[in-house]
Amino acid sequence: MNAINKAIWLPLLATGLAGLQPVLAQQPAKPAPKTELTGANPGLSLNPDTAVTSFHDVTIKGQKVPYKAVAGTQPVWDQDGKVMAGLFYTYYERTDVKDRASRPLVISFNGGPGTPSVWMQIAYTGPRLLNIDDEGYPVQPYGIHENPQSILDIADIVYIDPANTGFSRINKDAPRDKFFGVNADIKYLAEWINTFVSRHNRWASPKYLIGESYGTTRVSGLALELQNAQWMYLNGVILVSPTDLGISRNGPVDAALSLPYYAATAWYHKALTADLQQKDLTTMLPEVEHFTIHELIPAISQGGFLDEQKRKEIASRMARYSGLSEKVILQHNLNIPPDFFWKELLRDRGYTVGRLDSRYLGQDKEDAGNNPDYNAELTSWLHAFTPAINIYLREELKFPTDLKYMMFGPVHPWDRNGDRTGENLRQAMAANPYLNVMIQSGYYDGACDYFNAKYSMWQLDPGRKLKNRLSWKGYRSGHMMYLRKDDLTTGNDDIRDFIKKSLPKAGQPAKY
């Protein structure tokens, strides 16, 4: 199983401002009975159809932006109109905009599957930012402050927590196969989005999907499902740290594509030879990428029949680029598992490196072994995010509930059959000339690594017809690249530019 597939299976993945006193208004959109819920606290109940609205402002890029925040739930119904679940969402709408028809709407998901939208909501695109240091590490006191880089200046945003994540819950008697699988997830969320867009009068607005990690699988499938089943056409899809999107990369390709990520990580930890180390990261990586495509994949393809001298030459080059020894590379037959790399790279220094962000260091009980004891970066993130989101939703947005906010929810087993989400996205682009796609990757992400993301982008366009609507951006951080202050700014600026460039001119038809 490659690193990207592991990222899907493993769960992935802020202080109220003293002068802010939101005006609250209860807005039940459609009366619904309370329902018995599954999850961590099955005795608790949640009104699946309610909302609390508050009014705020934030200064973005030096401009004061007033907005309303709606924290609420909206039902998922079955074919007979029975409520099967209540999904929690937070909707931010700029209030000084008169022309809502031309105002973009961004629909945001995170991944796992099994995680809510907390990560991007209070650390990337939303108007509030959790308290962390400039590199993304936890600080105390926990809480939140203004996000001066938020995209709320140019787009309204709704953050959606899928079933059994955050405050969202399915009913006790709801069939799990309606929610927990690649295609089931896409189907019910498309219906939910249709209802949300109708309730909030956003049919005229340009629409964008953004997903992170497994959320990229979700939004890639949604692009076609919204188009085919809801007749809702998008202007853009943003893939943050994308999974493999159901695109096959078995055998030698799977074995080779991680090397550029290994090189980036080794460069960061100063584990490369002096000549490579003195180069800038983005100057050094193209050399590794070229070697990976033109030499490493062909070499691994020959297996045990590769000429012995050539085998040693390839191992020597891999050692040069990865920071590992030629000996261990040969012992692994030129195929270094990611788990082993995270354990081995800094073994002599007494550290492991993080899976989702290799800048983070861990310490194991023993230096021996083939994989780290724990994910150093994920522990760090939970340390910062969990108190921040509970403080924010309960104290600032005043959403009343005793439910546990589930950072990782009970959504397994997850049905992965029929994952064609990359092909779904390609079909949606082919049928909709307005639809553009941008990919964002962190160089130090070992779960959904940047070179695999590039590979997916290449495979999305085998016919060379979509190249002008596909783009990739790299950042000097990991899976959640926005946790690094510099990349928070650059990443949001890239999203802002992507939205502006993908908005057609008035009267410009969607045609080839």
TrEMBL record:
Key words of the record: Carboxypeptidase, Glycoprotein, Hydrolase, Protease, Signal
MF term (GO), any: serine-type carboxypeptidase activity
One of the GO biological process terms: proteolysis
Superkingdom to which the source organism belongs: Bacteria
Signal peptide limits: 1-25
Protein name: Carboxypeptidase
